[in-house]
Amino acid sequence: MEKKNTLEIIGFTLIIIGALFFISKNYYIIEALSSVYESRDIILPLGLFIWDIGYMKKAKEMKAEF
Q1: How many domains does the chain have?
Q2: Phi first, then psi: what are they for 4, rounded to 5°?
Q3: With the CA atoms of 48, 14, 20 and 43 taken in that order, what torsion angle do they form, in degrees rounded to the nearest 10?
Q4: Would you say 22 and 40 are in contact if contact means Cβ atoms under 8 Å apart?
Q5: CA–CA separation, 51 and 28 (whole Å)
Q6: Can you tell me the distance from the alpha carbon of 46 to that of 35, in angstroms, rounded to the nearest whole number?
């Protein structure tokens, strides 16, 4: 059974949340989320960075197996 990479899952979740905020701000502005829209510029790159760290960790483990 393959173990789950939590950094990759957390990063991917942040990417999805950041993308939803991006789409919501550009096409359908929700007034209740106006305070969160400012952090959108941080959430998306942070999610990408965390996902990348998790992906590199997984690739390093796969490389060590072979």
Answers
A1: 1
A2: -85, 140
A3: -70
A4: yes
A5: 27
A6: 18
Kindly give, in sequence order, each residue whose CB lies less than 8 Å from that of residue 33, ignoring residues fewer than 6 positions away. 21, 24
- Domain extent at residue 56: 6-65
What contacts 49, CB < 8 A, 6 or more positions away? 11
Q: Would residue 57 count as lying in a domain?
A: yes
In a domain, 1, yes or no: no
For 39-63, what is each residue's pLDDT tens digit?
878 888 899 999 899 888 888 888 8
Q: Is the pTM above the cut of 0.85? A: no
Structural domain contains residue 41: yes
Taking the C-alpha atoms of residue 7 and residue 54, their distance in angstroms, rounded to an integer, is 5
